[in-house]
Amino acid sequence: MSGVQDKVQQHYDQVAEIYDSRYNHKRGRSYHAHISRHVMSCLPEGGMLLDLGCGTGLFVHRYSSQGGNAVGLDFSRGMIFRARDRNRDSDFGIGNAEILPFRDKAFDAVASLLAFSYLKNPEQMLAEAWRVLKPGGTLAICTLGRNLLTSGLPAVYTLGEVMRIRRVGMGAFGERYYAPDEMTGLFEMTGFREVTARRCSFAHLNLVDPLYSLARRIEPFVEEKIPSLAYNLLVSGRKPDH
Ligand SMILES: C[S@@+](CC[C@H](N)C(=O)[O-])C[C@H]1O[C@@H](n2cnc3c(N)ncnc32)[C@H](O)[C@@H]1O
C-alpha cells in the first residue's frame, strides 16, 4: 500500500471506536440511512453483495436485514472488528478494495459507500469489482461529489489534522471528489453499461440547527429539482450478461 493509504488505514483504526457515534447516532444515523436507501434502490433485492470499504458494517447490516447476504471488506482492522460484532452472520475480510481476495464472478452486486474518494487507483478498484461480479451484476458507489460544498473540505481537513482534532475523516488524505461525467466515464471505460450518476444528500451533518432541520425538510425537493446542491454522488452500472 502507498504511504497515504497507510495513513487512511491508521486513521480509521484510530477512529473506529467513535465512528458509530458519528454515523449511527441522531443526525448521522438519518444521514447514513438516507444514502443507504439511495444505494439500495440501485441494487437487486436479495443475492450476494460485496461491500467495499465497509467500515463498521452499517450497510451490510441494512442489506442483510432486507433479506440479502453480504460480505464486507475494509483495510482497517479496527473497523472490521466492529463490523463483525454488528453482523455475526456475515463474513468480513481485511484488505485493500483495489486488490480483491475473491474469485471471479462471485457476487450479484458490489456496493461502496463513502470510501471511493480515498482510493489511489480507482480504475483498479472498478476493474476488480467487474471481475468479481457475475454477468448481469450491479455496481453502486456513493461518494462525495466535486462541488462548492466539497471544494473547501481538503483545507478544513488539513487544518483539523494540524490542530490534532480527533474526528472521523479529519486528516490530509489527498481525497478525490468526482464530477458526475468523470464517474460515468470511469464506469463505462471499465465496461459497465446502463450507467447512471445522480446527486443525493443535501442535509449536511455539520449544519447548525435550525438550518439542519430546514435542510432535512427540503432535501427531497433539492434532490429532485436542484441536485447540484446535494453533495454526494450516486453512480451505478451493470455488467452486461455476455
Ligand atoms: C467514511 S468510512 C465509510 C465506511 C462505510 N462504508 C460506511 O458507510 O459507514 C471509509 C472507510 O473506507 C475504508 N477504506 C478507505 N480506503 C480503502 C481501501 N483502499 N481499501 C479498503 N478499505 C478502504 C476505511 O478504512 C473506512 O473504513
Structure description:
This protein is of the alpha/beta class and 242 residues long. The chain has a single domain, classed as Vaccinia Virus protein VP39 (Rossmann fold), CATH 3.40.50.150. It contains 9 helices and 7 strands. It has helices spanning 3-23, 26-40, 58-65, 77-86, 122-132, 148-151, 153-162, 180-190, 211-225; strands at 48-52, 69-74, 91-94, 107-113, 133-144, 193-200, 232-238. A 7-stranded mixed sheet has the order 3-2-1-4-5-7-6, sandwiched between helices. Strand 2 (69-74), helix 4 and strand 3 form a beta-alpha-beta unit. The longest helix is centred in the N-terminal third of the chain and has 21 residues, at 3-23. The two termini are 34 Å apart. The mean pLDDT is 92. S-adenosylmethionine is lined by residues 5, 8-9, 12, 23, 53-55, 58-59, 74-76, 79, 96-98, 113-115, 118-119, 169. S-adenosylmethionine binds at residues 5, 8-9, 12, 23, 53-55, 58-59, 74-76, 79, 96-98, 113-115, 118-119, 169.
CATH class (first level) name: Alpha Beta
The overall strand count is 7
Shape estimate: globular
Termini gap: 34 Å
Main beta sheet: strand number and arrangement?
7 strands, mixed
Question: If helices are DSSP runs of H or I spanning 4 or more residues, what is the number of helices?
Answer: 9
Helix and strand content put the structural class at alpha/beta
Work out the helicity level: 40-55%
CATH-derived architecture: 3-Layer(aba) Sandwich
CATH superfamily: Vaccinia Virus protein VP39
Tell me the β content.
Answer: 15-25%
Low-confidence stretches: none
- CATH topology, what is it called? Rossmann fold
Task: Calculate Rg over CA atoms.
Answer: 17 Å
Write down the domain tally.
Answer: 1
Taking strands numbered 1, 2, ... along the chain, how are they ordered across the largest sheet? Answer: 3-2-1-4-5-7-6
- List the bound ligands: S-adenosylmethionine
Query: Could you tell me the mean pLDDT?
Result: 92
Q: Name the helix and strand elements from N-terminus to C-terminus, one letter apiece.
A: HHEHEHEEHEHHHEHE
